[in-house]
Amino acid sequence: MLNKDEIKQIIPQREPFLMIDEIEEFIPGESAIAYKYVNEDEWYFKGHFPGNPIMPGVLITESLAQTGAVAILSMEENKGKNALFGGIDKMKFKKIVLPGDKLKLEVKIIKKKGPIGIGQAMATVDGKVAAKGELTFALV
């Protein structure tokens, strides 16, 4: 288990854009499982949507990307680098994510070639798929 302070030692994101709260497990260069505890005080709920708060799909995707970044940037040779989006493919949103949800984020690195790679990503709430797709990253 890694807490937020330990996550910050691996990836460069900081509040309010650090979108994962803890890491359950990770294998450097291979996979990571993280959690985002979605609470009613999240900055984006003020406008998305007033009176009907829903976590934006792009922020679920960002949460998945940060989870994958933990797997990639925890490798010794990648320390101090950034993992940037190279692409988002086959991303589907299946369930609305609401305040109070515990978002489980799972990313498996399925391809690496030089500084480019692809992660297979899935976000779930209570075992139900909220989002899934492939994320391409570039290390810089």
Commentary on this structure:
This protein is an alpha+beta fold. The mean pLDDT is 97. It is globular. The chain starts with a helix and ends with a strand. Strands 1-2-4-5-6-3 form a six-stranded antiparallel sheet, covered by helices on one side. The chain has a single domain (4-139), classed as Thiol Ester Dehydrase, Chain A. The protein has helices at residues 4-8, 57-73, and strands spanning 22-27, 31-37, 83-93, 102-113, 116-125, 128-139.
Quick description:
This protein is α+β, with helices and mostly antiparallel strands. The chain contains 2 helices and 6 strands; from the N terminus they run H-E-E-H-E-E-E-E.
Q: Taking all residues together, what is the mean pLDDT?
A: 97
What is the CATH superfamily classification? Hotdog Thioesterase
Specify the helix fraction band. 10-25%
Q: How much beta, percentage-wise?
A: 35-45%
Helix and strand succession?
HEEHEEEE
Rg over alpha carbons: 14 Å
Major β-sheet strand ordering: 1-2-4-5-6-3
**Level-2 CATH architecture:** Roll
List unreliable stretches of 5+ residues.
none
Count of separate structural domains: 1
Counting copies of identical and different chains, the oligomeric state is single chain
N→C terminal distance: 27 Å
* Biggest sheet features: 6 strands, antiparallel
| CATH-assigned fold name | Thiol Ester Dehydrase, Chain A
Structure summary, number of beta strands: 6
The DSSP helix count reads 2
What is the overall silhouette?
Answer: globular
Structural class: alpha+beta
Q: What's the level 1 CATH class?
A: Alpha Beta
